[in-house]
Amino acid sequence: MNWSDFDAALFDLDGVITPTAVVHMHAWDRMFNDFLAGYDDQSPYTDDDYFRYVDGKPRYEGVQSFLASRGIELPFGDPSDAPSATTVCGLGNRKNDAFEKVLATEGVEVYPGSKLLVEQLAERGLKLAVVSSSRNARKVLDAAGMLDFFPVIVDGNVAEAEELAGKPQPDTFLDAAKKLGVSKDRAVVLEDAVSGVQAGRSGAFGLVVGVDRGAGREALLENGADVVVQDLEELA
């Protein structure tokens, strides 16, 4: 691809810039399987469930999506619910507690190829943003030493405050492009989740890049990616 055809790059965070998707996956696994232990008729939560129902979605939507797949109904509750609460928000907060403990104790690394691409695009003068469903995006970028590259961060907190629909809707990406002052047809979306490439395609962005960290090349292409890479170094 020719980066001179574009003015901005809109990066998802988990699984695209940092391997925190693995930490998220472990936190979801622990939370859901502890929860499902109370149901005799439920099989364990698996990585396949993560990619089908949780990956790329805002936290509470991910909880709702998975529970619906199992026919389990819980009250939604409130984002202020304690992690011990048996509500959608309570389960989401329980997962977030597990994630934050790992982040605080182990920190986070950056994919070398992603760091290389971000640095090169910054040198070229492209405008950069992070668009993440996570409410921890700023903390993760700071821990990874990448915060200064991204003047615009549209995360779960911004989406809630501005009432933006989460992925697979394109609203958060469109908001990031607007805040960068670029037109969507001159912006590239870089995503590893099916819901993320769906958002990029429905938003009619200039290019949608799928990063295959486990969702599968064909699934990313079928859901809106124009091109799929295994590592962002391929685009540097």
TrEMBL record:
EC nos: 5.4.2.6
Enzyme class: isomerase
SUPFAM superfamilies registered for this protein in UniProt: HAD-like
Keywords: Carbohydrate metabolism, Hydrolase, Isomerase, Magnesium, Metal-binding, Phosphoprotein
GO molecular function, one term: beta-phosphoglucomutase activity
KW Disulfide bond (keyword) present: no
Record's keyword annotation contains Hydrolase: yes
Matching InterPro entries: B-phosphoglucomutase_hydrolase, Beta-PGM-like, HAD-like_sf, HAD-SF_hydro_IA, HAD_sf, PGP-like_dom2
Domain of life: Bacteria
Family (UniProt): Belongs to the HAD-like hydrolase superfamily. CbbY/CbbZ/Gph/YieH family.
Name of the protein this chain belongs to: Beta-phosphoglucomutase
Catalytic activity: beta-D-glucose 1-phosphate = beta-D-glucose 6-phosphate
Native source organism of the sequence: Aeromicrobium camelliae
Necessary cofactors: Mg(2+)
